[in-house]
């Protein structure tokens, strides 16, 4: 059923190709000097689009819970949209040589592993909820990606590498939350047929 929360989630999915194009095509819209760095306007627009798309994740979840509009379609689409958006952004940051590839590989690998565990659980008729640590991981990833897309603005004026520090923090929480998720839900793998 395509209710309002599901439409909001779909809008997030439709924003992803636009976001990718903004970072993949060399638009010559100029740039701004921000401290000791330069921020291309196309990266600024892509950063704002990423922040907007990330915000819809909170909006659709809030709306679905508040008005009791949680559906199986929404349970499928919402995490898919999140993973597509974050993975796209991280891969593009590697391509732009802003994020280290090994950090991105660890983050994306954890997402594949948890998705696999959730699929096994779904096959057994179980739904595995996201943990608080998993939610913290998502917030840190979004903050890190946003800061890196905006070339560390406004911290670039201070020469403080906020974006990359957040990315490393997100990686650490990603590893810890992944371990915690598997530890708490290993019975799904152990008891599956």
From TrEMBL:
Record's subcellular location: Cell membrane
GO biological process, one term: phosphatidylglycerol biosynthetic process
E.C. no: 2.7.8.5
Segments crossing the lipid bilayer: 12-29, 41-63, 84-108, 160-182
Catalytic reaction(s) noted: a CDP-1,2-diacyl-sn-glycerol + sn-glycerol 3-phosphate = a 1,2-diacyl-sn-glycero-3-phospho-(1'-sn-glycero-3'-phosphate) + CMP + H(+)
A Pfam match: CDP-OH_P_transf
Keyword Transcription regulation (UniProt): no
Source organism, top-level taxon: Bacteria
Membrane topology: Multi-pass membrane protein
Pathway it works in: Lipid metabolism; Phospholipid metabolism; phosphatidylglycerol biosynthesis; phosphatidylglycerol from CDP-diacylglycerol: step 1/2
Swiss-Prot/TrEMBL keywords: Cell membrane, Lipid biosynthesis, Lipid metabolism, Membrane, Phospholipid biosynthesis, Phospholipid metabolism, Transferase, Transmembrane, Transmembrane helix
Claim: NADP is one of the keywords in the record: no
GO molecular-function term, one example from the UniProt record: CDP-diacylglycerol-glycerol-3-phosphate 3-phosphatidyltransferase activity
EC supergroup of this enzyme: transferase
A GO cellular component entry from the record: plasma membrane
Matching InterPro entries: CDP-alcohol_PTase-I, CDP-OH_P_trans, CDP-OH_PTrfase_TM_dom, CDP_ALCOHOL_P_TRANSF_CS, Phosphatidylglycerol_P_synth
Xref: NCBIfam families: pgsA
Recorded family membership: Belongs to the CDP-alcohol phosphatidyltransferase class-I family.
Job description of the protein: This protein catalyzes the committed step to the synthesis of the acidic phospholipids.
Protein name: CDP-diacylglycerol--glycerol-3-phosphate 3-phosphatidyltransferase
Organism whose genome encodes this protein: Sediminibacillus halophilus
